[in-house]
Structures are given as structure tokens and as C-alpha cells.
Amino acid sequence: MSATLYSPTTGLWIGGQASLVADGRTRPVINPATEEVIAEVAEAGAADVERALAAAAAAQPGWARQPSPERAAYLVQIAALIRRDADRLARLVVAEQGKPLAHARGEVDFAARFFEYFASFARAATGEIMASDNPHQDVLVRTLPHGVVVGIIAWNFPAALFGRKVAPAIMAGNAIVVKPHEDTPLTALALAALIHEAGVPAGVVNVVCGAGDVVGEALVRNPITRLVSITGSVRAGKAVARAAAEDLTIISLELGGKAPFIVLDDADVDIAATAAVAARFGNCGQICTSNERTYVHRRLAETFIDRFVALAADLKLGDPLLPDTDLGPKINRAELEKVERMVAKAGADGAQVVLGGGRPSGAQFKRGFWLAPTVLTGVRQDMEIMREEVFGPVAAITTFEDLDEAIALANDTAYGLSAYVYSNDLRATMRLVDELACGEVYVNNTGPEQVQGYHSGTGNSGYGGDDGIHGLERYLRRKTVYLSYGPEA
């Protein structure tokens, strides 16, 4: 890994410049494939959070006054700089997150697309005019930025999630403070530096790194913060909701998922199995929209499982920088051990481990947080493996008899983010689309979601959402104006 990717000691990004904390505290950033400490990043405290929010508050009014096309021009320039540095950024994602390089390049491209897409709102409508009850009067509903917003992002997509929060926030005229996950701060800091290079005024985009119970808590509870958008765990989302309640701060929560992957009896087995493997093992299963529960019609089950297992067995686990690697490591030891415990419990509860089930052998896996692709069959709906989010390379497959049972099983969950349907029966497919309790359904495809869509969930998957025009609306508030202009005014 090139030493030019990151500095040995890296500061926060506040007010347009790198900033170390007053007491010199740092947190190591660990490469999950090697367990090497690749950098030390400044560990913020409450005073540093206050500085970042104050910088954002000072910069926001001037930024909001800039005409929307001018703000959009900055977003276009940011996207160009991300594409210019795409390889460096992708290798940075690999170094701190562990996904294969090809996948990291796709993620960086996704980050650039967020800025390009939201720049397209440069001349979009910014309000409405309603008919008035009174003569010579218009009722105007204007859209305005909230002011200072906070983006809290997870470790699984450190570049894409940065773009997902920052691009709409600043396009809407807000200033933002981003808190990346403690395990993956380097990408956010690198992107903040590119935003500064693009000429965005100092303080419009800030990055503070550190523990959620310190930095996240301080960001959410500070009265300067008017909106918090978080992508993270259910636990983190509930903590944010509790903290935000004190000042009635608006929140948008994109949390975990337990997506069902439903294969009806008319589906093409090869196509469905290939898609199910991709949806389960992409990013080592560390995606909130991952195929967490595979439901296959009993008539296809034996053929499907054989094909699925064969495809999963062919996945190459190894060095994320090699071009033929399919799976990298888990993000950290705690996550690895959590998934191992879940697999062990499933086995103890009667599931059959038909592939993997443990750490891979070989010298290259002596260090790092590796887990072999794992497939479980014979699972029951009441097992933990079918109830709680795994977030790892573990597939759980079971069967159903008919469409009614498939719907009941899929909806028997506390989550409601994504679902997958494989079928050529339009009537059955549309019934599933109508009745699945989730925020998005992928029919005969595995995504990923697109920037112009709307990524949202229900239940433990959160509320609010990201992307598209509805995602942009989260970063705007409305003001009504009763404008009278006649002689009687």
C-alpha cells in the first residue's frame, strides 16, 4: 500500500483545514486484511465538535445566499475531482474497509454520481404557488435549507455514504458536519480535502472523527444541529433518536435490514441462484440491503441449493488488491466474532452447515478478519440467524410451499428495508410488490439502488430516507408566505 494514500497522523477537517485535537489524542486505523495500523486519526472530543458546528454555522448563511446554479457548479467540480483521484480513493477504501479493489472503484464512482446528480437540481423548482381565498393574493410555499445538518455514516461504504449525505445537504444550501465511523475515517477526510480543493467555502463541509458515544452524542445534542441523517445500526439509530428528542431535532434514519430473497417456482434457477449469491456475498455480506434470508419454492429447492452452493464455493477470498478477489475480510474482530457466534448458534439449533462455517486456512489468513463463505440449510424462521441481521458472508436458505407462505415468511421480521423477487409470473410478482412490508423491492435484479430513486425503510430499518428528489427534500424546510398586492392590501 502506497504511503501517499494517507498521512501517518491525520487531523479532523474543520473550517477548511486539517485540525489536530488539543490534547493530541488519536485512534488507530487498522487494515482489516492485515491488522496493520495504517494511520492514527485525531480523536475528537466535545470541544472539537463545538468548533466544527460553529464553523458550519458561520459558513452556512453565505453559502445559502449563493444562487443554486453556483452551488451546483461546485458539486460538478467535486465530482470531477473525485473521478480524477478515483484510483487513490478506491485504494484508500480498500486499505481501511477491506472490500475488493474493483468493488471499491465502483463505490467511488457512486460517490461522484451523487454530486453529479444533485447538481442537476440547479434550476429546479424551489417552492409552490397556491390559489388564495382572497383577491390579489398569492399563497407561496418556499423551500429553504435547515441550516447546519449532521451526517453520521457507517463503515461499509465510506465513500458512497459520504456522497449520499453531503451532496444533497450542500446543494440545498446547508452546511454539514460529517462523522465517519471510527474504523473508516480516512476516506471522509480525503473527500473533504477534495471539496476544499473545489473551492467550496471553508466551514461548509466539516469532518469530525471519534467514538459515537462521545462525538455522535455531542453532534446530535447540540442546539446548532437542526437535522441529523444517519446510516448505521439499529442501536445507533435509537440512540440518535433519543438524543435528538431533547431539542426536537429532525432525524432521518437508514438502519439495518433483513432482506428476503424470494424465488418463485417459475424462476430460472441458474439466474436466480447467481443473483442470490451476488446479493448475499457482495462486500462480504456487509450491506444493509444484502440477501439475508433466501426463500425458495420447495419444487426448486434441491436444484437451487446445489447451484447456490457451487457458486458460493467458487468465490475467491483473499487479498482485496488482487483483480480476481471476490471477498475481502470482515471489518473488525468484534464483527467477525459476532458472525461466528451466530453461525455456531444456528448449528446448535439444528441448521446444517453445507459450506464454510469458519475461518479459512492458509498462511495469508493468519492475520486479518477472515470468514469463509458460509451456507446454512435446514434453518427455521424462529432461529436467530433468520431474525437478526448477520452482516457477514453467511447465507441461510429455507423453503416455502406457496405464495401466501412466502409473503408471511418475508414479512415476519422487525426490519423493512429491501426485498428481492425472482419470477416471470407478473401477477404473482405484483402481489409480492404490493404486500411485502419494506421500502424497496428488486424484481429480477439485485441493485444496487440508484441515485435518482429513494432509499428508505420501515420498522427497525428506520424512517426518512436518502436519494432522489425525496432525499433532497429531507434537507429542506418549508416557509409559507401570504403575499397580498392589491389596493386593499
Structural summary, described in words:
It is a single chain. The protein has 489 residues and is of the alpha/beta class. It folds into two domains: 3-255 and 462-479, Aldehyde Dehydrogenase, Chain A, domain 1; 259-450, Aldehyde Dehydrogenase, Chain A, domain 2 (3-Layer(aba) Sandwich), CATH 3.40.309.10. It is built from 15 helices and 20 strands. The chain has helices spanning 46-65, 68-84, 86-97, 101-119, 160-171, 186-197, 212-221, 234-245, 269-281, 301-313, 333-348, 384-387, 403-411, 426-435, 468-473; strands at residues 9-10, 12-14, 17-19, 26-30, 37-42, 127-131, 137-145, 148-152, 175-179, 205-207, 225-231, 250-254, 259-263, 291-297, 352-355, 374-377, 394-400, 418-422, 440-443, 476-484. The strands form five sheets. Strands 15-16-17-14-13-18-19 form a seven-stranded mixed beta sheet, with helices on both faces. The protein has a five-stranded parallel beta sheet with strand order 10-9-8-11-12, with helices on both faces. Strands 1-5-4 form a three-stranded mixed beta sheet, with no helix packed on it.
